[in-house]
Amino acid sequence: MSNILAIPAASRFGILRTMIIGHLIASTALMLLPLPDKLNGAVMLLVTRAIFLDFDQAPRQTFLAQRVPAEERTAAMGVVNMTRTLAQSGGPLLTGYLGQQGRLGLSFALAGVFKWVYDILLAVAFLPGSYK
């Protein structure tokens, strides 16, 4: 569903802004996940996150296709995917530790904060008119 929504959003807001908007919405839902005291609130946040989780896939591929020469795209996609995998690899360890300490909710908040930082860095690095 995210990819279907991302196409008109990219046409309206631009590729990079669409990636960032989708990330920020999904990350905010993730950060807020520990707060609801009823199942309905948590489910609503999870559904919101699911809708926007992959919002960046098509725009990210388009962005890389525009920025990276054709002969270097396979290598660039490999670097992007490897970097994402490495960045996510510490999450289970930290979540396990926080869970043992009885602070599992903090892992959701931290994950959302880390994703927000990524989006801010993405905006600063690539959006026109950003601080450099």
From TrEMBL:
Major facilitator superfamily (MFS) profile domain ranges (all copies): 1-132
Keywords annotated in UniProt: Membrane, Transmembrane, Transmembrane helix
Subcellular location: Membrane
Entry's Gene Ontology molecular function annotations: transmembrane transporter activity
Pfam families listed in its UniProt record: MFS_1
Gene3D superfamilies on file: MFS general substrate transporter like domains (1.20.1250.20)
SUPFAM superfamilies hit by this protein: MFS general substrate transporter (SSF103473)
Highest taxon listed in the record's lineage: Eukaryota
Membrane topology: Multi-pass membrane protein
Transmembrane intervals: 15-35, 104-127
InterPro entries: MFS, MFS_dom, MFS_trans_sf
GO cellular component: membrane
Primary location class: membrane
Tagged with keyword Membrane: yes
Protein name per the record: Major facilitator superfamily (MFS) profile domain-containing protein
Native organism: Penicillium nordicum
Native organism taxonomy: Eukaryota, Fungi, Dikarya, Ascomycota, Pezizomycotina
